[in-house]
Amino acid sequence: AIWSALHLGEKEAITFRELLAPFSIRGGQLLTDNLVLESSEATWRANGALGFDGVMDYRIEVELGDALASEFRKRAGRDVASLLAGSTGKITVDLAVKGPAAHPTVSMDTAKLARRATANATQKLKDELGSAKSRLAEQLGLSPAAPTAPGDSAGAADSAKAPPPPDVQVAQVVQRD
User: Fold this and answer.
1) For 69-107, what is each residue's pLDDT tens digit?
2) Cα(145)–Cα(150) distance, rounded to whole angstroms?
3) What torsion, rounded to 10 degrees, do the Cα atoms 105, 111, 113, 116 define?
4) Which residues pair with 85 in a beta bridge?
5) Taking a C-beta distance cutoff of 8 angstroms, is the pair 108, 93 a contact?
6) Contact status, residue 45 vs residue 61, Cβ threshold 8 Å
7) CB–CB of 86/116 below 8 Å?
């Protein structure tokens, strides 16, 4: 069910090298916190519960290995895949696994995926704006300004002293009482 949710083909089992599973038992459930399963295909991180009645409720973060990441890029596109990079830079998808353990329902955790994609897109835009700013300063012959902390007025003062670029008209607005 997990492989189908990822649209990466059906597999019978996950062959893993290592499984770390801290757990506790409370209220008729086996609660796992920070379960980690490593395989050549992916690294799985899960948090949730398996009830003694066989009902599951898990949130799973899947960091795809190279082969699966390549297949995912082909299906989703490079741009989408790059927005889903996790903290390690690898494609990371988030799943919700619920229902009876024998036939669970697996779905994408779209809220978590959207947060990751938004954070990655925001960082990418910041990087591109910084690069464009540096190229513009270089083209205008301006010395690159030292990085400033947010709210630091030194950077604003430096930019106020910089001469306007050629062929730019400067208008002055005067407010009168």
Assistant:
1) 888 888 877 777 777 877 777 888 899 999 999 899 988
2) 14
3) -150
4) 91
5) yes
6) yes
7) yes
Q: What is the Cα–Cα distance from 92 to 116, expressed in whole angstroms? A: 9
Report yes or no: 20 and 36 within 8 Å, Cβ to Cβ.
yes
Q: DSSP letters along 67-113, please?
A: HHHHHHHHHH-HHHHHHTB-TTSSBEEEEEEEEETTS-EEEE-HHHH
Query: Which two structure tokens, joined as six digits, stand for 138?
Result: 């270089």
Which pTM was predicted? 0.60
What's the average model confidence in pLDDT over 145-161? 50
Q: Which H or E run contains 129?
A: helix 110-139
A 10 A CB-CB count for 58 gives 18
Residue 10, number of CB atoms within 10 A of its CB: 8
Tokens of 83: 């927005």
